[in-house]
Amino acid sequence: MLRLDEPDPVAAWDERMAVLNDCAARLTERRFDAIELSGPGTELTIGLLPTATWSTVDFSTAKGLRHLAGLPSEEVFTTPDPGRTSGQVTATMPLVLGDGTIIRGLRFRFEGGVAVEIDADENAEALRGLTEIDGGARRLGELALVDGEGRIGPLGTVFYNTLLDESAASHIALGNGFPFLIGDADRERSNHSARHIDFMIGSAELDVDGVTADGERVPVLRNLAWQL
Q: How far apart are CA 192 and CA 141, in angstroms?
């Protein structure tokens, strides 16, 4: 997962981050008004804020030291408009809560940005309880896209650890957003919550499209491959 099998692991991460950073830059440049996700059990539209940017975990500290946060990471992510998610979505992997509870077969229905229905084959009530903490806990704070070129997804293994599983598949998160990914004009519109709960929705069958302000649909991911 950490590319330590490569002759030069640091160079391998540099190469991978270059690909992901380029995808993040292309997504930011397109300024999509929304992202549409379509696959088995999923027909979801997630609105984006006008000044939202896309990022990877390739950061710098306050002193200028390069820092790849949370390795291994294979995601390109942003903070969506918390008021503009609609449709239904089905998780493609189990979700493990902090107390070890495993939620299988997770399904959501969104209206006006709010998860108005939360169902699952097992332990749906545990997640429902967590989302009652505040008004932002049933809105989205993150949308992350993951391609098929990472090291975790191709293993076909569920690790029951969100920080690993979220780099295996595209995912969304209920709860708190990332204000640093939003421009000054829209920063206060980022979702605020005491929760941030990631769950995986990606697979080779999930099609991802960007929707422009004038309604043009642009392929973003097909069969886990970037199209931009």
A: 8
* 16 contacts: CB under 8 Å, gap ≥ 6: 3, 74, 149, 150
| Cβ–Cβ under 8 Å, residues 213 and 49 | no
pLDDT, tens digit, 9 for 90 and up, residues 100-133:
999 999 999 999 999 999 999 999 999 999 999 9
State the pLDDT confidence band at 43, using cuts at 50, 70 and 90. very high
Residue 171 CA, chain-centre distance (Å), reads 4
151: left (phi over 0), alpha (psi -120 to 50) or beta: alpha
Provide the token pair at 147: 């391609």
Which is more confidently placed, 163 or 123?
A: 123
DSSP secondary structure string, 141-178?
EEEEEE-S-SSSGGGT---S-HHHHTTTS-EEEEE---
Answer whether residue 155 shows pLDDT above 90. Answer: yes
34's CB contacts (< 8 A; 6+ apart) are 45, 46, 47, 48, 84, 210, 211
How far from 128 is each of 119, 124, 161, 174, CA to CA, in Å?
A: 9, 6, 20, 11
Determine the Cα–Cα distance for residues 16 and 226; give it in Å rounded to an integer: 14
Long-range contacts: 1-10, Cβ < 8 Å, 24+? 1/72, 1/151, 1/152, 1/164, 2/71, 2/72, 2/151, 3/72, 3/151
pTM for this prediction: 0.96
